[in-house]
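Take one protein record:
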Amino acid sequence: MAKSQAFLALLFCFLLIASSGMLMAEAKICSRPSKTWTGPCIKTENCNKQCKNWEEARNGACHRSGIGFACFCYFKC
């Protein structure tokens, strides 16, 4: 009984350490204005498609830039 409890406690500690290590290994996301988008960005879904298809980004979105909105693409840093 004591051996199985010790084993479970060690297993639990290992899983906690492994899961926190995985969180640190996730890639950071960097954004930049789209290089292929022209004009104001009105629909985020169109920006998202263009960033994915033309610039090989993870996704894209319209964000305020100056007076209007611009398309920004998001990549792994």
In short: The first strand starts at residue 29 and ends at 33. The radius of gyration is 22 Å. Helices lie at 2-25, 44-55. The beta strands are 29-33, 59-65, 68-76.
